[in-house]
Amino acid sequence: MSVTFLLFFVFLLVGMYLILLILLYIKQENFIFHPTKLSPTYAFNQFENFEEHLFKTPNDGLINALHFKSQNSKGIVLYFHGNARSLDDWAWVHEDFINLNYDLFIWDYRSYGKSKGKLSESNINSDALFLYNQIIKHFDAENIVLYGRSIGTGPAMELATKVAAKCLVLETPYTSIGSMAGANFPFLPIKQILRYKFNNIRKIKSLKMPVYIFTGTNDSITPHKHSLKLANRLKEGKIIIFEGGVHGNLSDFPKYHEELAKILK
User: Fold this and answer.
1) CA 259 to CA 265: how far, in whole Å?
2) Residue 116 carries which DSSP code?
3) Phi, psi of 248 (to 5 degrees)
4) What is the DSSP letter of 236?
């Protein structure tokens, strides 16, 4: 094998590596977020007893949200959903909270459903704070629950560092996006090229409210060990472990509803 061929082969590998880095940097939203889009005229006819809202938020955001109302409301849950689908699928979770006499306020991130605007970590966080400020006009802080699920645990955690609330609930959380991506691509400088941090492990110690973590031992999307690391830094709250639970089925366990009822008592 000639030296010329070896040099060509090395340059080819380096070139491919650099192209991969550039693609990951430019297209990282496609790896992290998997929205479904809805027509502006889409009617959520599968649901009852809700109000639909469209909010103009900072940085040219247009956020679609649904507010499900309980007849004997004790408070409201501000819900941050996962990275796939949109409100037409996610809003079914309202049943878990309405049954416990809590309103549910659930929203689509930018580019999801009817929501529009540039998707970025700072814009998601800014939209979350905007929506909280709408909610607190009608509910006292001690009656507001922040609930993050999967990717939504990141912005829910960030909001919890800025505002007052009854508690923060994290379902299938992660320590940070960087640690998740780094485990999947150990040969790439992920933390250097990643624009989305959502560093939950760094923020959890600063929270001034109870934190409750729901995690399944067989979760292959956000592995159980992430929840354990977060739980080790809890000041107040607890971790609720579901033996055999996976990423999307924790609400199938009776234990989930029992523990949720205790949290929202």
Assistant:
1) 10
2) B
3) -115, 15
4) S
